[in-house]
Amino acid sequence: MDELTWVEIKEESLRxxxxxxxxxxxxxVLLCPCVxxxxxxxxxxxxxxxxxxxxxxxxxxxxxxxARTLRDAGIKAPIYILGYVPLSALxxxxxLECRLVVYNRETIDKLAEIGKEVKVHIKLETGNNRQGVLxxxxxxxxxxxxxxxxxxxxxxxxxxxxxxxxxxxxxAEKQLARxxxxxxxxxxxxxxxxxxxxxxSAATILFKETHFQMVRTGISNYGLWPSNETYVSYLKEMGxxxxxxxxxxWKAKIAQIKNIPAGEMIGYxxxxxxxxxxxxAIIPIGYYDGYDRGINGAHVLIHGKRAPLRGRVCMNIIMVxxxxxxxxxxxxxxxxxxxxxxxxxxxEVFAGWCGTINYEIPTRVNERIPxxxx
Length: 374
Ligand SMILES: Cc1ncc(COP(=O)(O)O)c(C=O)c1O
Prior knowledge:
Elements: E1 5-9, H1 11-25, E2 30-31, H2 36-40, H3 44-53, E3 59-61, H4 64-72, E4 79-81, H5 90-95, E5 98-102, H6 105-114, E6 118-125, E7 133-134, H7 138-146, E8 151-157, H8 170-188, E9 195-199, H9 201-206, E10 214-215, H10 228-237, E11 248-253, E12 256-260, E13 265-266, E14 272-273, E15 278-283, E16 299-302, E17 305-308, E18 318-321, E19 333-340, E20 343-345, H11 347-354, H12 360-363, E21 371-373
Parallel strand pairs: 1-21, 2-10, 3-4, 4-5, 5-6, 6-7, 6-8, 8-9, 9-10
Antiparallel strand pairs: 1-11, 11-19, 12-15, 13-14, 15-18, 16-17, 19-20
Helix pairs in contact: 1-3
The chain binds pyridoxal-5'-phosphate.
């Protein structure tokens, strides 16, 4: 292998996680895994293909660019674009047969002008206050769409603001109530929406009443729990039976080994001074690759042993202390995230070192770094 660094994705884990979700939602709910942001850093085309093979029905992406990447990879499954598509790009989105989220008149008018059949899903604002039509504007907006022949109103969606950050789900319940009330209001004027959807991973795992006709699971397709709170709620309410398998690990190889005496400075800003004669390994990855410069208390794994970071993270290099790993040598494998022997750096542990959530860790690994299925 001639790469300096690469990501390994366990195919078995991806397939398992889709199966787990299928078991939860049953056969009558569409499974629409979220593969936006390069499949949360796991590789867009790879994950798109495997999820469909493993039994998913649709795929959801954030942008037209991602939809085009999936189509170019030969994926024919329905694609739902969750994010904004500029007016000038709508024609291509329609030609790629994407389903579109809609929440403004300009998009609808442009789709009407394009004139080709397109399926749209209204995004309803129930309390997240990001993109979405206000509840009070919904009926007018839906009626406007219904009056245009080439636009089919296929879906109504919303997104929870506070379902994974807490074990108190009252805010999510309020959002769900608003969503249900809006569905009733639409029905009262004769508008039936075939596909209603609001569930992300946490909602899908915890609340059957959020499944409706489709779920948009994200983080847990990759084997990660949305949060500790979701895991605790799951254990409290449901017990066991839902087994996620993490798919992601991130590796590199040693680019140099050298011995430096005690009292030497390491790296920019001379932030670290060796306290003993040190065997140092140079690892050719840095913040360009997505290894956070602000990381704190980190180590990597080499031959199943911990090698602590020394000095600052550089743009393309980190330095680690391998004084206690005498067998470490040039081009040995370095595990940045993942398992080595009996040691493991989970995505969650790494996220803790970076002061962030697990979502951000695989997602931030530079798209240029190869994703390899194992
Ligand atoms: C609109 C929408 N639906 C679904 C998801 C999937 O959420 P999760 O990764 O928490 O399952 C996201 C993720 O941010 C989203 O923005």
